[in-house]
Design brief:
Elements: H1 8-26, E1 32-41, E2 44-46, H2 52-62, E3 66-77, E4 80-93, H3 98-112, E5 129-133, H4 136-139, H5 144-153
Antiparallel strand pairs: 1-2, 1-3, 3-4, 4-5
C-alpha cells in the first residue's frame, strides 16, 4: 500500500481489517475487533524504531513539529466487516534538547521500541509534547469510546 501511495488513513484501516479478518476466519461466530495505528508526519508514515539510533532520528524529526496518529478499528462477524472507525489525534511536540532526548531514549528504550514514533504518552513520553488534540484512547491505538458506543447500540454489550 505504501508503494502505491495509499493515504495513511487507508493503511491504518487495512491493517486493522487484516487483523480482524484473520481471527474471524478461525472464529466466524464471534465478534472480532481488529485495531492498528499509523503515525503520519508530513505525508510520511513512521514505524516502530528498529534500534535506539532510529528512535533518536524519528524523535528529532518530530521535535518541534505536529504529527497525527490514526487509530483504526474494524469489527468482523461471520467473516465480514460490519463496522469500522478511524480516530485521529493531532500532536505537537515541544522543542526538547538533545541531552533530554538521549536520556529519554536510554531510560525508555525497552518500552518505546514497541511504539510508533518512539514514544508512549502513557509513560514518560508525555513530557515530549506541548499539545495534544484528540481522544486519549486513540493515542493508545484503540478508539474505545466509539467501539463501546457501537456495541451498546447493537445490544452486544449492556447499554
Amino acid at each position: 500500500m505504501l508503494a502505491d501511495g495509499a493515504p495513511p488513513r487507508d493503511i491504518a484501516d487495512a491493517l486493522a481489517e487484516g487483523k480482524a479478518e484473520k481471527i474471524s476466519r478461525k472464529n466466524p461466530e464471534a465478534l472480532v475487533i481488529g485495531c492498528d495505528q499509523v503515525l503520519e508526519h508530513r505525508g510520511t508514515i513512521l514505524s516502530k524504531p528498529e534500534n535506539p539510533e532510529d528512535a533518536r532520528a524519528q524523535l528529532k524529526r518530530l521535535r518541534g513539529d505536529r504529527h497525527s496518529l490514526l487509530s483504526a478499528a474494524v469489527i468482523y462477524h461471520e467473516g465480514q466487516p460490519i463496522w469500522r472507525h478511524i480516530g485521529q489525534v493531532r500532536l505537537q511536540m515541544r522543542d526538547f534538547s538533545d541531552a533530554y532526548l538521549d536520556g529519554y531514549i536510554a531510560r525508555n528504550w525497552d518500552s518505546i521500541r514497541h511504539a510508533v514514533g518512539g514514544y508512549k504518552l502513557e509513560e514518560e513520553g508525555v513530557r515530549l509534547f506541548a499539545r495534544i488534540d484528540g481522544d486519549y484512547f486513540n493515542v493508545l491505538g484503540l478508539p474505545l469510546v466509539e467501539i463501546l458506543s457501537y456495541l451498546s447500540t447493537t445490544g452486544d454489550i449492556e447499554a
